Amino acid sequence: MERRENFQKVKNFFDRKLAEIGYYGIIGAAEFKGVYDALMPVQKAKLEDICGERFHNFIMNGSFICIGIAFPEYAIDCIDARLSDGTIDKDRWNIYADEYNKINGFLNAIAEEIADIFGGIPIQATIEGVKVKNVKEYYGMTISHRVVAENAGLGWRGKNELIVNEKFSCAIRFASIITDLPLIHGRRVEASCGECNACLEACLFLKNKDKLEDYREHCRKYILELGLKAEVCGKCIKACYRNSIFRGKFKLK
Ligand code: SF4
Ligand code: SF4
């Protein structure tokens, strides 16, 4: 009972914040140990470092709160926008990049507030301003929000490696809060991509991910070449929202 009430209090707070900023979102909680066990070794070490002396307490009694904010539909439709001659319309695509930055800012601020009010450690939506030579260098810098969201039952792992939520597709960004507040935990959602391949058709790196050493490195280089206002591309998100077998069910604001 206490766990359910605590979760409801955090959810009510998050819902108020969403109403203030005028965005849709989702929230869930996952067992700390379940997330820790699912992380890659370098992220396990990072999590131990983030938690410091509280790590053993979190392993016994901890949770991750996962908060997600969905993109507005108009921003998703700006991804890979083209001019009449077929070339990239960078100004429109940058509307998506601007939203990405804006949503990260909201998530970071709300995660900090939740951590302050309910007790915990916030983990920001993304790593800002770090230059790397290979995508692998990112792996040990933070904790995968996708693993947290998956464990919190906020969606399944799509073929594009993003979290697919039944309402918002993968057009969501996440931040997390580590806490020892007793909370009810979500259940993992069954992977449901089925025969759909829309995201794979939108991206050669994804389509060939099993043959490539690390498709994420190709993705990183493509994004750098693209040179938008944020390090984003998003074609695999738009493909899921607009062209997947679930396109009639997904609904963004
Ligand atoms: S972000 Fe772009 S390049 Fe990266 S996997 Fe998605 S579609 Fe491919
Ligand atoms: S586009 Fe289709 S295959 Fe790709 S993540 Fe979405 S539902 Fe899954």
Structure description:
β4 and β5 form a beta hairpin. The protein has 12 helices and 6 strands. α1 packs antiparallel against α6. It has one domain. The longest helix has 29 residues. The strands form 2 sheets. The chain has a 4-stranded antiparallel beta sheet, with helices on both faces. The radius of gyration is 18 Å and the shape is globular. It has 253 residues and is an alpha+beta fold. Bound molecules: iron/sulfur cluster (2 copies). The site of one iron/sulfur cluster has 10 residues, from α10, α11 and α12.
How is this fold's topology laid out?
Layout lengths: L1 H20 L3 E7 H7 L2 H11 L3 H7 L1 E8 L2 H4 L13 H29 L2 E3 L12 H4 L5 H7 L4 E2 L5 E2 L7 E8 L18 H5 L1 H4 L7 H12 L8 H9 L10
Antiparallel strand pairs: 1-2, 2-6, 3-6, 4-5
Average pLDDT works out at 97
Rg of Cα set: 18 Å
Number of helices: 12
Largest sheet: 4 strands, antiparallel
Element order, helices and strands? HEHHHEHHEHHEEEHHHH
What coarse outline follows from CA principal-axis ratios?
Answer: globular
Helix share, percent: 40-55%
Instruction: Give a count of the beta strands, DSSP E runs of length 2 or more.
Output: 6
How far the N terminus sits from the C terminus, by CA atoms, comes to: 33 Å
How many discrete domains? 1
**Ligands bound here?**
iron/sulfur cluster
> Structural class of the helices, strands and pairings?
alpha+beta
- Low-pLDDT stretches: none
Strand content: 5-15%
